Amino acid sequence: MNDSHIPGLSMIVMNQHQILYQDSLGYAGYNYDSETDRVIGFSTQNDNIYMIGSITKTITCISVMQLVERGLINLDDDINKYLPLPIVNPYYSNETITMRHLLTHTSSIGTTHPGLSVLPNDQYSTINFTNFIYGALLEGGPFYSEFSWLKVHVGKEYHYSNLGTSLAGLIVEIVSNMDFKAFTTKYLFEPLNMSSDTFWLIDSLNTRQKQLLTNHHLFNASIDDFRFFFPFLKFSEFFIDSEPLSNISWINVTERFGLLMHPAGQLRTSVTSLAKHLLMFINNGTYNGIQILKSETVNEIKKIQFHTSTSLKVGLIYTYFDFKITKMRTVLGHNGGFIGVNSWMLMNPDTNIGVIVLSNGDVVNFNQYQSNKVTTALITITNYLFDVFETTA
C-alpha cells in the first residue's frame, strides 16, 4: 500500500456459507489540524463507506434481471419497446439495440464528457434522468458529444460504456415505474439487509454515517488536470505529515460528488454490506433464505456472452478476469475506478471463494503509471487473499 500510495482499504473474504476474513488498513482520509498546522490521517474501519465505482454496474444488472424474471424485459427485444422516444446509432440507424447489448457493452454506445456529468454532493439527483440520457444520445442534446456513438455495428465489438449501462438503468425506471434508486433499495438493498450503509444520496445520511464516508485522494497528479476535466468539483493540494508517507504531495477532492450516470458508478456502501450482495450471487441468487434471483438467471449472467479482442470473457456485466500471479486463476466479477476510487469484487466459480477490496485512492487516467501501480497492488492483494483462503478451504 505504501509503495503504491493507497491511503486506505477495506477487504473481506467469504465462501458460500460465511465470512472467512475481514480487515481494514491505512487511512479513510486526512484532516487538517489547525492547532498543529498538520494533515493527520484517520484510520479505516470495517464499517467505512466507500464509493465503489463501476461495481455499481452489477447492481444495475441484478435490477434488470429481476424485471426479466417478471416478464417485463426481454434481453433480446429492441430497447425502443420500452422507451418513450427511439434511440438508435445514427451511423447504423436500421440496427436494433437490445438489453443484452447494453449489458455486454456491445451496443455501439460511446460516452459523454465524464467531467460534465460529475456534480457536487447530490446535485445530479436534481436533473431529470430521462432528459440527461436523451440529451447525451440524441444529436443536438446538451450532453451529446462526438463520442456519444461509435462508428461500429451493433453487437460486433466490445466498447466499455458507462452511458450504455446508464441507459439500462433508465429502462429499469421506465418499466418498473419507479425511480432507479428507489427500485434498488426496495428490491435489493432492503431484502439483503444492506440499506443501513448503502446509499445513492449523501443528504440521506445521518451524522454517524457521514463520519464513516471515506475521502477521495489522488497521489502524484496535476491539480490543473482535475480542475479542467471536472469543472464542477473542488480540489486542494496538500502534504501528508504522518508516517510513513511524509512530504508526499497529494490532491484531495474537497467535497462529495455524484454522477448523472449513477447506474454505472455512483453507489456508496461498506465492504460488509457489499459482501451480502456477492454472497447472494455466489449462492445462485439467494442470501440468508431470501431469493433475489432464480439460479437459472444467475447462470445466464455468468454465461460468456462475448469474447473481446483483448481476450476478456464477458457475461452480463460480470466479467471473467485471468489472474496469473502465483498461478493461473480465472475469477468472475467487476472492478471500479474513478476519482480516488479503486475497487474489486470477485468470486472464483471453481471454489466459490469471494473477495472484495475497496480503496479510496486512484488518479484514474491522468497519471497512467500511478494508476497502474494502484491497480496492480490491489490485484496482488486480491490474488493473495484467494491464495490463502482457497488453500485452507
UniProtKB/TrEMBL annotation:
Domain Beta-lactamase-related: 2-364
Pfam family, one: Beta-lactamase
Domain of life the protein comes from: Eukaryota
InterPro entries tied to this protein: AmpC-like (IPR050491), Beta-lactam-related (IPR001466), Beta-lactam/transpept-like (IPR012338)
Name of the protein in its database record: Beta-lactamase-related domain-containing protein
